[in-house]
Each structure stands twice: as structure tokens, then as C-alpha cells.
Specification:
By secondary structure, this protein is an alpha+beta fold. It is built from 9 helices and 5 strands.
Length: 244
């Protein structure tokens, strides 16, 4: 039976037994298949970063909270199958959130974002989905490497990433993804072999948020005409949204 409508928070979602089980199972499934980490660390990062992007751009607190919820549950479809996990995750999410008593319109916004976060089948369709896409696709780092080795391109690329973070420059309406790679382990070309379609999705997502998107690898802007090195110092008004 569906509960009366109430304002669901990230804390409520984190403590829900079904969601806990789905995240745990999703991560176990992907670990068995040799994928990078998709468990508590990943979903917590995506949840926090989705919310921080929205906060930095000045969205209302309730929108920020919905972004945090969306980021936390976005990968639960992997508990069923890696293929089309965004779509299955959206269906699972709608049922669980409805039974928790979430407002139907808020629920619809969340499942639209979850169902569209895969670059193979999805597109940014609302504010939540845009912030989610950027947060999710930015999580490339050596801490996510599981069974993959240097013989595998995914392993090499992720192991080579020493540091990564997202910033929001609200004054100039630019969202930037900074990647610092150890080029002795992998090369920018290998990063692009894996992440090009994801970065193109980030460009689309930033546009929906009224921003442009810049991918910066080892202080060089990859997707803009200006290829001059960039400073590690944040611009005036620019915020690192990958940190608390």
C-alpha cells in the first residue's frame, strides 16, 4: 500500500532496506563482471556532486535534495542487468519511491533522470538529469579500479587518474571537469576512447543548465579552441563541487 504523500529526503532513501540491498547487489554483480566500483563510494560521490552542481547554480533547496536522491539511486538497475540499467533502475525507483510516499511529480522527475543517465540510450531531459549526467560521468579515478589490470584499457585509464574534480563558474556559466593523469600509465587518447561519448553527454547536460562544459586534462582544455594551459587556481566565483 502506498503511504500518504510526504517530503522524502536523502536520509530517508539511504536508510531504506530495499535501496540498500539493490546498491549492494548492483555493485557485487558488476564486480563479478570486472567493472569498476559502483557501490556506496560511487553513488555517494554522484549524489553529493549532483546536489553541489545544483546548489552552485542557485537552484532551490528542494531541487538540490531531489538531485541528491537521484544521484544516490541512479545505478540500482545494475542489480538486474548492466544492459539498459538506467531504464530498469527508473522502474525500480518509481515503485519504491511511490511506496515511500514521494510526491508523484517529484518521482517522475527523478525517474526521468535515472532513465536517461546512460549515454547509449539517454539524453539530458530535465535539471536533475543534467546535473546527474555530469556528476556520474566525472567519476573516473584509480580508486574505482577493481579486478581490471594494466592489460585492460579501462584499468589503465582509471589507474592513471591521480585526481579529478568538477567546478562551477557561475559568473561565466562554465562547468569544468579537471582530470590529472599519469601519462606513464595511460594517454589522453585512451581516456577519449572510453569517455568521448560521456563527455559529449556532459556538454549537452551543461547546455541544458545554461552553461558551457570544458574538459581539462593535465591543464589543457580538450574540447575548446583555446588550448592554452589553465591554472590550478579557481577563478573568482568558481566552486569545486566535488568536495563537501
Amino acid at each position: 500500500m502506498q503511504n500518504p504523500q510526504k517530503q522524502i529526503t536523502l536520509s530517508t532513501v539511504k536508510n531504506h532496506l530495499e535501496i540498500k540491498a539493490l546498491i549492494q547487489t548492483a555493485n557485487a554483480n558488476l564486480e563479478f563482471l570486472g567493472y569498476t566500483e559502483h557501490g556506496h563510494r560511487h553513488v555517494s560521490y554522484v549524489s553529493k556532486t549532483t546536489a553541489n552542481i545544483l546548489r552552485a547554480l542557485g537552484y532551490p533547496e528542494r531541487t538540490i535534495e531531489l538531485g541528491a536522491i537521484t544521484g544516490y539511486i541512479h545505478d540500482i538497475g545494475n542489480a538486474i542487468n548492466r544492459s539498459n540499467h538506467g531504464l530498469t533502475g527508473a522502474m525500480l525507483s518509481f515503485d519504491i519511491l511511490a511506496r515511500m510516499g514521494l510526491d508523484p511529480l517529484e518521482n517522475a522527475q527523478i525517474i526521468s533522470a535515472v532513465g536517461n543517465h546512460e549515454e547509449q540510450t539517454g539524453n539530458p531531459v530535465n535539471i536533475l538529469s543534467a546535473a546527474l549526467a555530469i556528476a556520474d560521468k566525472s567519476d573516473a579515478h584509480r580508486s574505482r579500479v577493481g579486478k581490471r589490470t594494466m592489460d585492460d584499457i579501462h584499468g589503465r585509464v582509471n589507474l592513471s587518474i591521480l585526481k579529478n574534480y568538477i567546478t562551477v563558474d557561475k559568473e561565466n556559466m562554465v562547468i569544468r571537469l579537471f582530470i590529472y593523469m599519469d601519462t606513464k600509465l595511460s594517454a589522453t587518447m585512451e581516456f577519449l576512447q572510453i569517455y568521448l561519448t560521456r563527455m559529449l553527454m556532459c556538454e549537452q547536460a551543461a547546455k541544458l543548465l545554461g552553461c558551457s562544459f570544458e574538459l581539462i586534462i593535465n591543464r589543457t582544455i580538450i574540447n575548446r579552441q583555446n588550448q592554452s594551459p589553465t591554472s590550478e587556481n579557481l577563478a573568482k566565483g568558481e566552486k569545486n563541487v566535488s568536495e563537501s
